[in-house]
């Protein structure tokens, strides 16, 4: 006589699939919030890296460097020039940012809004719709953050705070520029620094 076939019945397989579906339904929302928190951290790290790059390039080249919010064309597309008061708020960095060599402009006081400067690096918008991630700065002296050849921020730039807010998650990263040119980061819950 032969042995009886061993295996799973259809009912057992359906029970396992139902339990798996329930566990997946519980895990997916939690995983979404982890992804959103990681995106917010990534944007804060990108901005920190860009500010550090600007400072390091000023020291390396012994020239004036700047970082500014990326402008927007009349069509609403990102441009390769700094934002000016005519296109949108100069405090809104949500459309990306530019690292610039100001030595080519002949002026270290104004941020270029045309092609008279060398763009060192272009950072794209962290969130193209600018609805999930908001990046702002509290500068009272215009859109550009300028660095001296010794790595110090230009007068009026120290104490400037960048806010990287991710309202969906309720998380905000605050980047504060010190008088020495160094950044301090503080992560908080809420939407403001």
Give a brief description.
InterPro entries: N_methyl_site, Pilin-like, T2SS_GspH. The protein has one helix spanning 10-61, and strands spanning 65-72, 78-82, 97-101, 118-123, 134-137, 145-147, 161-166, 171-177, 183-189.
Would you kindly provide a written description of the structure presented here, covering whatever features stand out?
Helix content is 27%, strand content 26%. The chain has 193 residues and is an alpha+beta fold. The strands form two sheets. Strands 1, 2, 3, 4 and 6 form a five-stranded antiparallel beta sheet that branches. It has a four-stranded antiparallel beta sheet with strand order 5-7-8-9, covered by helices on one side.
Detail the topology: elements first, then pairings:
Blueprint (H helix, E strand, L loop, with lengths): L9 H52 L3 E8 L5 E5 L14 E5 L16 E6 L10 E4 L7 E3 L13 E6 L4 E7 L5 E7 L4
Antiparallel strand pairs: 1-2, 1-3, 1-6, 3-4, 5-7, 7-8, 8-9
- Annotation field: number of helices: 1
Q: Count the strands? A: 9
Q: Which bin fits the share of residues in helices?
A: 25-40%
What sequence of helices (H) and strands (E) makes up the elements? HEEEEEEEEE
Tell me, rounded to a whole number, the average pLDDT.
78
The rounded Rg comes to: 24 Å
* Largest sheet data: 5 strands, antiparallel
What is the global morphology? elongated
Category by helix and strand content: alpha+beta
**% residues in beta strands:** 25-35%
Poorly predicted spans: none
How far apart the termini lie comes to 79 Å
InterPro entries: N_methyl_site (IPR012902), Pilin-like (IPR045584), T2SS_GspH (IPR022346)
Transmembrane segments: 7-31
Protein name: Type II secretion system protein H
Domain General secretion pathway GspH: 44-181
